[in-house]
Structure formats: C-alpha cells, structure tokens
Design brief:
Layout (H helix, E strand, L loop, with lengths): L30 E8 L2 E6 L15 E7 L4 H10 L4 H8 L6 E4 L4 E11 L4 E11 L3 E6 L7 H7 L5 H4 L2 H36 L3 H33 L10 H63 L15 H22 L4
Parallel strand pairs: 3-7
Antiparallel strand pairs: 1-2, 1-3, 4-5, 5-6, 6-7
Length: 354
Amino acid sequence: MLKLIKKSGEKTGLSPGSLVLTDKKPNIPVIVRQTVYHAAHLQTQVLAPDYDWSGVRGNSHIIWLQLSGIHDFDWLEKLGAAFQLDRLVLEDIANTAHRPKSENFGEYLYFVGKLIDWDRGEKEISSEQISLVLGRDFVLSFTERERDIFDNIHKRLQNEDGRLRKSGADYLFYTLIDLLVDRYFNALEKLGDDIEQVEAAMMSDGDQASVRHIHHLKRDLLFFHRSVWPLRDAIISLQRLDTPLIDKKTTPYLRDVNDHVVQIIDTVETFRDLTSSLFETFLSLSGNRMNEVIKVLTIISTIFIPLTFLVGVYGMNFHFMPELGWQSGYFAVWGVMILLASAMLIYFKRKKWL
C-alpha cells in the first residue's frame, strides 16, 4: 500500500537548501550514467566518483546525466556545482515527498513528478519521485533507485535518423516527461483489472476481503489523484513559459502530454466513482443477504408458532383432558400439525415470500 505522507521531521528548523533525505534507502547503490550525443555521435558511460567535470560543457553536443540513488549528497553537490544548480533545487531533489511542479530558474528549468507504476514483485502500486533539470545543452534526471524505465529512450537515441538525436535538449526533456506520464496508463490498467476482479468476487461471495480490497483501491486512487492534478499544472506551466530553453517546435508535444494527463485524470475520477459504487453495492448486497436470512428465519419461526402452541397444550397433562383418552389422538395431532405447516408453506409460496 502506498504511503500518502512521508516523514520529513528531520528538516524542521534547518536553513533553506539543507539536504535531508525524507525517505532513506541506504542500501541502494548510486549510479551516475552520462550520455553525450548529437546527430552524428552517441556515447554512454558510467561515471566514477572522481570524474573530472572540466570541459564537459561548451561543445555542440547534448549531455544527459542520470543519477540513480539520491541519498548520496556528495554526488548531488558535485552535479549542483558543475551545472550551477541552486541549493533549493538540490533540496527539492532530496525531498522525495515533494508534490509535482515546474520552476523557471532562468538558466535552467526544474521539473519534479511522481512515477507511479505496478510493482510485480510486491504486487501493488509503487511510487517514486523523478526530478528533471533542463538547461541549454543538458538534461539531468534524478531517480530514487536504478530502474530500467529509460531503456527505450536509450534505444531511440541509437537511431541516428530519429527525431531525438536531431533535436535539442528540450525534446529529450519532453520525452522523459512523456515517459513518466505513459507509465501512469500501465498502473491504471492494472487498477482497472483489480476493480473488475473485486466486482466479480463481490457478486459471488461478497466477503470482508472484498471490502479490504476496495479500501486499498480507494487509497491508491487517492494517491493518483494527488499526484496527477499537480502534474497537470506543472505541464501547463511549462507550456506557458516564455523561455529560450524550450523551442516552439516542442510546445505542441507538451500539449499532447497535457492531453494525456487530462485523460488520466478522467480515468482516475471514473475509477474513484466505480470504487465508491462498489462499496455501496457491497453494503446493498450485504443488506439483501441479511434480509434473506431474516426472512427465512422469520418464516420458520412463523410455521413453528402454531405447532408449538399445539404441543404445548397437549403437554399440560391434565387428568381430565378428553383427548388424552383417544386411541388415535397422537396421530391426529401429528396430522393436524403437518396439515397446518403445509397450508402455511403454500400460503407463503403464493405470496412469493419464499
């Protein structure tokens, strides 16, 4: 289950720009991968901690730096110094509980969003913060751990005739955002399958496990809601920025991403309505099942009331009860009780109470 709020109490009272990781994962290795490319050249390498940053920038190529494992503040500070990032940006990168947003710092743009995906190992929705920085000739991406989410982009970069190789850093920046948004559809598809399974299980048995599953779905969809709405605002903000860092040719692609986000919002709202309806349906089915049980018990009690009266009367054992001397009295009482019970059952059947 997703945590809606991550602890950030260690930041209380610290000065702005202090690097404090709000979601510590100390066992995650730090990997920094550098991809340098232009139309006729592509090179990817994993950087060592003592990498010399002098002379990296200033050429006609595009630099894409991927840092996986943001708990290593030494790497964050090195990248911040090499690309002249503000300390507040580094603080936001380390704060994994940050809401999606985009900011313009003049020489570069900062974007942060949530990667929501389906974790096959844990069999639940997982969340991870992704931070992006766009400069004139570079893009920096920061993820909490090493993932294969960027493999398709590296494959696209290998195509010399592809748009990605021939375009500027702003197109790579858009591509990364578009990838993040596309992963939302995968998670929503899984949630949709879960909703269908819960609906089928609820119609068949409707046990308490269905209620717990619905509750988990509602929490996941709430997290979706809290992540997607700010993401939409962040992308709209990027579209409206008057900055030379984003070419006018890239703006239509950002509008397309925004359309996808709107579609995700509509789907999330639809799923939230469905889960609410499922819970109401569960309550209704539970009430109907309880009514059926009460009806059956009431009918049984109603049938046995006159029978109990008869056996109670003849169970008093008064000495001068005339029927006690009948030779066939026992069988006569049984016959009356059977006829009475049968008549009541026929009556209930005609009234459609059974």
